[in-house]
Fold this sequence. Notes:
The complex is a heterodimer.
Chain A: H1 12-75, H2 79-85, E1 91-100, E2 103-112, H3 129-235
Antiparallel strand pairs in A: 1-2
Chain B: E1 11-16, H1 18-27, E2 40-42, H2 49-61, E3 65-71, H3 72-77, H4 79-84, E4 91-95, H5 108-117
Parallel strand pairs in B: 1-2, 1-3, 3-4
Amino acid sequence: xxxxxxxxxxxxxxxxxxxxxxxxxxxxxxxxxxxxxxxxxxxxxxxxxxxxxxxxxxxxxxxxxxxxxxxxxxxxxxxxxxxxxxxxxxxxxxxxxxxxxxxxxxxxxxxxxxxxxxxxxxxxxxxxxxxxxxxxxxxxxxxxxxxxxxxxxxxxxxxxxxxxxxxxxxxxxxxxxxxxxxxxxxxxxxxxxxxxxxxxxxxxxxxxxxxxxxxxxxxxxxxxxxxxxxxxxxxxxxxxxxxxxxxxxxxxxxxxxxxxxx
Amino acid sequence: xxxxxxxxxxxxxxxxxxxxxxxxxxxxxxxxxxxxxxxxxxxxxxxxxxxxxxxxxxxxxxxxxxxxxxxxxxxxxxxxxxxxxxxxxxxxxxxxxxxxxxxxxxxxxxxxxxxxxxx
Lengths: 262, 119
């Protein structure tokens, strides 16, 4: 019996225990396989969404750049001022967890603090319609980017989970189940051999019993034959080879009669 | 899978050229914390590759950053570091710039997709 197997005593109880384990492993295997398939389908959907979103993002960013160029044309270069006045972010993201077929996926949502523009003090805050417009365009763009980032994180995490699940499926299919099957066949073969030994032993004992009975019978018959033969000899003293055993007395033969006393 | 709460990750970091950063800062993502660390880096002709790599690494290590935006042509410069980056947080998003439209073939994340599906 080649192949790895578990080291168990080959008893009938262990056989049932191992059979139960085999069933458990098979159920687990099919469940994991289904989970992997569900995750892969979802994964493909996300991948397609990401591809579309990325292409869209290209266009959106392009629009935003144009808007910024317009500002530069109208108001002049504002980049230095913008950079210097960036103190505390007004555009933040919040993270929340979503359960997708058993996997906790994070999702980002944009949180724009509309009140208190950070450029208030620099003279850019209210003035400049164009700047405001550009600001709005960029906020929209960043919101889209946040969505994309959510998709991407989901993608990365799903990727890992799918790999992990597939590894487990393969492990069960190619390592665990063959081991258990080998153990079962080992136990079965050992039990068969024990049965055979038992059977052989019984047969041997039966045979010996029969022999003993036959011997005893023969002994009996021999003894019976002997006893009869001796009784016959006593009746026929002078006659050798007396034919058969006769029960009648031969009155012509010499005998010591008892005396008749009157 | 660790159930780490990401409630503390709220910032969007950015590594890009001047125009991209200006636009993003206009939207309001700019943040300078108590240690004078900014969450953005303006890359121009004088910026070295080490500086870019260092900025990226430090952003990716910070616990309060959720997303890192990076212009694709700058991402090309540190492609090696990006390809090695496999963490889920912070997410790295490659965005196009004014002069360099988006090319999906160069994106690190999409490359991993292609590896998975062999498309």
